[in-house]
Amino acid sequence: MCARLSGSVLVTGSNRGIGLELVRQLCESPCPPTHIFAACRDPDGPNAKVLRDLALKHPQLVTTLCLDTTNQGTIAEAARLVGDQLKDGSLNLLINNAAINIPGSLADTGEKEMMEVFLTNTVGPMLVTKEFLPHLRTAASRPGAQSEMSCRRAAVVNVSTLFSSIQRCHETFLRAPMYPYRVSKAALNMLTRCLSEDLRADGILVMALHPGWVQTDMGGPQAPLSTEDSVKGMLNVISSLSDQHVGALLDWEGKSIPW
Ligand SMILES: NC(=O)c1ccc[n+]([C@@H]2O[C@H](COP(=O)([O-])OP(=O)(O)OC[C@H]3O[C@@H](n4cnc5c(N)ncnc54)[C@H](OP(=O)(O)O)[C@@H]3O)[C@@H](O)[C@H]2O)c1
């Protein structure tokens, strides 16, 4: 089945892991978006070679962009470039995927670790969403836009995690304490809820999505899910989002996760 994402899409952290696979599957979909903005910290660097090759293979479809979620200047410049490149200035889907994890016990975790992870995983998606909001608003309100909310109209997907769930913390905490990561992603969930309430009136759908435990640099080789299967599921969920999913926290199979 083809995940329907007809408009323009921007993915942060798209040079490796889940972000790269999102761009790859969007490019190779039988019904691809009209345009893909593949954002990452260093699009010209050695860690973005696979992404650059993908962009070369699909020159009409993919634009690579420099965007560091901890650097307001790069976010603003990326939003300006996207505005210039889009014919009508409308961005339909923003996927806030970029994140870091500094694992460790309470003893290993101090102010530096907490702040660095919070800045990247929570403040970053807020700043990125804020900067791209004019493009999302244009998409949501353009003539002929559907009245129902969806990723084809305008949506923000914040990539969260099961580890953000306060209710289910006891299931995984002892094997993976990850204080900064868990706290930053629980805060990302609240950011998701705030934005979803704020932007509902504009017709912009905001939700959070857990990709599963995935074989990436972050997830490790022992993870049960391949990036292919995770992203296939994520794109199916994203393409079927509607009004009922405003502010939801779902997993890659579309199942709801308790806060
Ligand atoms: N893998 C899992 O099991 C798992 C489970 C639950 C949730 N997630 C979530 O899924 C998302 C993707 O994770 P992943 O597994 O693909 O991780 P990953 O393999 O470690 O990749 C992380 C991506 O984020 C980028 N990034 C980090 N800091 C950034 C910044 N300040 N600005 C821009 N980009 C930045 C990295 O770019 P550089 O190459 O420049 O560092 C890289 O592209 C994250 O939100 C993560 O929390 C993953």
TrEMBL record:
CDD domains: carb_red_sniffer_like_SDR_c. Coiled coil: none annotated. Pfam families: adh_short (PF00106). Belongs to the short-chain dehydrogenases/reductases (SDR) family. This is C-factor-like.
